[in-house]
Each structure stands twice: as C-alpha cells, then as structure tokens.
Amino acid sequence: MDRRTMLKGGLALSGVLAMPAYLRAQSAKKLSILTWNIADQEAYFNEVFADFKKSNPGVEIEWLDKKGPEVPVFYQTQLVAGTPPDIINTQGALWVEYAANGALMDITSMLKGNAEVAKRFNADYLANWTLDGKNFMLPFYITKTLLFYNKNLFKEAGITAPPTTFAGIMDAADKIAKGERTGLLTLNFDWLYWPFFKSEGVDLLTPDGKKAAFNTPKAAEVLARLAKGTDSGAINKTSWTGRWVEPNGAFAAGTVGMHHAHSPAFFFMKGQGPWINADTLGVAQGPGGWSTPNSHGLGISKGSKNPELAFALLAHMTSDRWTQEFTKRRNVLTGNTASDQASLARLRGEEPLTAAVLQTQLENTDKMTGNWPLPFDAALKDAFYPELQNAVLGRKDAKTALNDAERQVNRLLSRRA
Amino acid sequence: MTALAAAVDAPQARPRLFARKRVRQAVLIWCFLLPSLLIFGLYRIMPLAWNVVLSFQEWSPTRPATWAGLYHYEEMFFYDEVFWTALWNTLLYIGSAPIGIAIALGLALLVNSDIRGRDVYRTIIFISYPLMTVAVGVIWRWMFDERVGLINYVARSLNLVDSPIPFLNSFDWALPSIIAANIWQMLGFYMIILLTGLQNIPQNLYEAASIDGADARRRFWRITVPLLKPSLFLCFVIGMLNSFTSFDLVYVMTGGGPGRATELLVTYVYKLGFVQTKFDYAAAVTVVFFALLIAIAWAANRLSGGNAGAVESD
C-alpha cells in the first residue's frame, strides 16, 4: 500500500469516525431519538427498541439522552446543521416554540389514521401538545402540580384537613410557621406557581392572547399575600429560587408544612426524608383544584427522513405494554388511560402512598393552567417571573411589580405580533 | 562547461539559491502555521464575523435569515431594561477585580516573607484556583445557604445577626455574594502572579532604600508597587476577562436572580440564545459585549504603559 492510498484510507476512516452517531442514523431505515434526562433507563429503552425491531426488521435505532438544559442547545444546533434527531422528547412548553417555527412535524393526520393510537390517551393531557388545533406530540410521561402536606405539622398546628383554596393554604401556612418551621413551599419554574393566581380568577393573557390580563386588583391581592407570607416566614424563601433540588430537599427535611410541587418531586423527597410514609405525608389537589402540567412529550422532527417509521416507534413506545413497563420502572403515569389505570391498581396494593400521589395526576385534568400554547413562552416567563420575584421578596410592592410586568409582557406581545 | 565558466557563473547563482531557500523556508513556516491559522480562523474569526452579520438579521434555527438592519440594536439600547441591568451588573462585577487583587497582594507579601510554613500557605491559597468553577459555585451556594449555610451559622453563633441572611435570595446580597465567591476562586491565581512579580524585584533596591532611611511603607509604595505594575495589570486584565466570562458561577449560584439582581451580560446572552431562542438578538448583545471587552482591555493596557504582563528583568 503506497503512502497516498494510506492517507486517503486514513482520512476516510477518520471522517466516518468523526461523523456523529445521530448523523449516521439519519440514513434510510435508521431512527434517532433524543430523550430528556432519563439516562438511567437504558435497559428499558434497549428492551423497547429490541421489541420494535422484531416487527420492523432491519431498523436501527440510535438513542441519545441529554440533561435538561442541554436538550434545547443540542436540538437547536442539530436543527441548524439539518440533522435533527427523528424523535425528540421535550418537557413543559418547550415544544410549542419548535412546533410554531416548523421544527416539529404535525402528526394530526397520522393520529387520525391510527385511531387505536389516538384513543389511548387521556384527552386533556393529549391536548397539551396541540397548537392551532394540530397535534404535535404524544404523551411520554405526565406530571402536574399537587399539594403535599406534612401530617405531623398539620396536627401540631391543629389543622384537620388539607386546605383547598389559596386563602386556606395561606392561613394554614401562617399557623404552621414558627421558629425554624415554615408553612409553605412552592416550586416555581415553568409557571408551576400559576394555580395560586388562576384559582383566584386571574388569567395571564386575554383570550385572544394579544394582551396581558393579569394586572387586576385580585392579582395584586394574591401577590401581596404571597409577599406577606414570604416576609413573615409562612412561605419558605427557598420557594423563589426557581430551583428544584433545594425546595424539595427543604420539604424532605420535615420542617415545612406544605409543598406545592409536581409529582416527580415526591420520589426525590421520599429518598431524602426518612419521615415520609403514608401516615405522615398527605397529598391533595392544588388551590381550587387547579394545577400546572409539566409533562414530557414525544414528537417527530420535520427534518426526519423516516417520519412514518418514527410514528410507528412512538405508537410502540406509548402502547399499553410498554407504558405499563415504564411506570413499573419509573413510577410515573404515561397518559395512556388503560395503562395508567392498570398501573394504579397495581400500585395501590404495592405502594399506597405512591398510588395516592399518582392518583392526583389523573384528577381534575380539566383544570390545568399555565400550559398556554405560546411560541414565545420562554420569553414571556422571563418577562413576568423577575417581577414576581421583585414583589414576593419585597423589592417592589405588588401593584408596582404587576404594572412593570404588564408593561414588559405587552411590549413582548406587540414585538412578537 | 569549463571550470572557469563555472567560477564566473557562481556569484550569479548564489542569490538564486538563497532566494529559493528563503521561499522554501517561508513555505515551511506557513505549512507549520497553517493548521493553527485555519483553526483560529474557523473557530474564532468566522464565528465573530458571523455573529456580527447575525446581529443585523432576523434568524432562528428554524427560519431562514432576513435582513433586520438596526432593529436589535434599537431594541437593546432603547427598550431592553434587562440589557442595561445586566450591563451595570457586569461593570460592578468587573469593578470587583481590584478588591481581589488587593487581597492577593497582601497574601503574596505575606507568603513572600520569611514566615514558617510559607510553602504550605502558598498551596492552600492557590488550591481554590484549579477547582472547577461549577464546584466552586456549588460550594458557595451551600456556604451562603440561609438555613444550613456555614456563614449564617457562624454569624448567628457569634450573635452578629438575629435572623439568617438569605444571601442568594436577597436583592442586596446576591451580587456581593457571587463576587465574594469569584474573588475566592481567583485569589490563588492573582497571588501566584504577584508572588512571581515580587520575587523578580531585586533585593538590592530594598537594601539601598533601607540604607537611605526609607521605612517599610515608603519601600512598598516607591519600590514594590511601581515594579509590580506589569503583574498588577496582568492580574487586572485576566480578572476582567474572567469576570466577563463568569457564566458558570452565576448560573450555578443564582441563575441571574433574584429578579435580575445577578444577571450579567454573559448569562443574559445565554438565556436569549438557548432559552428564548433569540439568537439574532443574542448576537447583537454579544457584539456590544465584545466591543466593551475590547475597550476595557485596551484601556487597561494603556494604563499599564502598554506592557501588561511584561516580565521585568534586571
């Protein structure tokens, strides 16, 4: 072999090796799937894919998993490169931006052509992934907010039942707060705090989505109450960090009365708080029965070379068999109605507390809020949330903060129009 | 050709030979330089140029680019309050570099003296620098924690405060807390640079000054500080560059909050690009950010007499 041939061979080999795996997976009969921070489920995915390959011989599936903050960065760069993964898993409202900007495939017709698949899902959850009447994603696993409460602290404070309204929650928080103890924690990323406002009749935008609608006397009242609670110690200040670990860890420490959080928080808290069991931890719906979903969906990239095959894989992954298997391994519900009921029935016998937590996820699904299909949801959050922080942490009074937030939100809406 | 003819031709052939050699040398030099220049052009110059172009366009990963003119700049300068807050915070953050340098100078003087165990002290002071910034952020996040943080624990144990201070949740304390963490991390680096500078100052200058009756304070201001100027400015320039790119510390400790209290330009650019998918607008902010960086680096270099980082020789 002469030097030139060796050089050519070496270059070709390094080209192949340097080519990202997901790029190689873009050719015919190959699928790539990008998931969101679920690397621990490698065994599950291997089994699902092996089963899919049995009915689709010759198909190769490339699975990639990225941590939450890395998913959008990775996906955006792949979109620019023209090599998006065939299937993408997103959390919360991230999908809307991709759908509105043409990155995701409209799967409405595919769903219509597969009635068996379409009718699997809880309609309220499935509706979370619709934009302008078109379906863009299928549920992968579903979560929404609920109210966890520490029964021991409730008993000590003389509270006999979990509060059901915003005022009730705040009153209970006041009663519990004493010394190192605080009454309430809330997660607050992705609009998870919005049930406090919605339960008091406050809407974020006008029905046509063109103007801010939240600057009302009632909203000012809610915000002022949250600020007062934060100042007095009734609300734990960790609530307003926007983080996940610290608030959940604080509740798990056993010194906080209530925690307004989504269901996955339960498993973290259970792992951290030895006091947590069915006798000490109670679960209830959020204020007024309202909740904010923060579910995970699976969609198909418009740039997929094998959209039909990708949809077949989605149908396979969301089937009764594999969703039940997923619940077994991850203790989450999947939005597949039959599967979720079967999983809950099993869990009631095996893990009653887990079953009680997950049961809340299937209740009041017609009262979900904070899941507006807005293509600029992230920018909207960024315009609103800092002003909320200004108010609850005492830098501005509620009315001023709402005025400032309204001005910024309206400006954003007019620029995006 | 006869020997005579060859001898006559020789002087004419020599320059051609040299010229060929020079060309070959130049080609060889360019061959060695080319990979680095290609990488530099590809990963530094091209993105910079593209970033400038992008700042005048409407673009997102899912839409083709259209010309936007000065739209983003108009938005930034006249309507975007967050930009001005982030800019102000960035300037405050940069402005904190001299505090760290001053502390490092004190420590460098200390470990440059004849105290016992000075090598151990040098190592202890330096150890914070090689730590991953994310790790530093996590450490300090817990240190500043309102309920379980060491700082609050000590402050309360000593009865310095009645109730714990929510350092990272406070509009007043959040930025100073991050600055403190940043100074802590950079302290070791500053100290090493300044220590090297101190050790390059000839001892005979101090001896001569002592003989002339100069006390320690005068020796410090008249000998140490002037001769340490290049090292001090090197510290300042590097500290400033570090402040400009101090994304991870802020991201881990506060994420830019509460409100916008710790939002820096670099964190704002990240959010615009990767959270809000406004890459075009993020590019415009980056252009201003870059211009500011160049201006401050230029000013710092001018102030140092144009030789920041130069090594003093005897």
Summary tags:
A: 417 residues; 5-stranded mixed β-sheet; 20 helices; 48% helix; B: 314 residues; mainly alpha; MetI-like fold; 2 domains
Helix content of chain A: 40-55%
How much beta of chain A, percentage-wise?
A: 5-15%
What does the radius of gyration of chain A come to? 23 Å
Looking at the structure, what is the overall shape of chain B?
flat
Whole-Å distance between the termini of chain B?
60 Å
Radius of gyration of chain B: 27 Å
Neighbour order of strands in the largest sheet of chain B: 1-2
Total DSSP E strands of chain A: 11
Q: Give the strand content of chain B.
A: under 5%
Low-confidence stretches of chain A: 21-27
The chain pair forming the largest interface, with residue counts per chain, is:
A-B, 33 and 26 residues
Secondary-structure-derived class of chain A: alpha/beta
Walk me through what this model shows.
The complex is a heterodimer of chains A (417) and B (314). Chain A is built from 20 helices and 11 strands. Chain A has 417 residues and is α/β, with parallel strands linked by helices. Chain A has a 5-stranded mixed beta sheet with strand order 2-1-3-11-6. In chain A, strands 8-9-7-10 form a 4-stranded mixed beta sheet, with helices on both faces. In chain A, helix 16 runs parallel beside helix 17, helix 17 (337-350) runs antiparallel to helix 18 (352-360) and helix 19 packs antiparallel against helix 20 (398-416). Chain A is globular. Chain B has 314 residues and is mainly α. Chain B folds into 2 domains: 13-54; 71-303, Orthogonal Bundle (MetI-like fold). Chain B has helices spanning 3-54, 71-79, 81-95, 97-112, 118-126, 133-143, 150-157, 174-199, 203-211, 216-244, 247-253, 265-275, 279-303, and strands at residues 57-60, 63-67. The N and C termini of chain B lie far apart (60 Å). Chain A binds chain B through residues 69, 72-73, 76-77, 79-80, 97-98, 101-103, 180, 237-238, 240-243, 250, 376, 378-379, 382, 386-387, 389-390, 393, 395, 408, 411, 415, and chain B through 60-63, 75, 79, 81, 146-147, 166, 168-171, 254-255, 257-260, 271, 274-278.
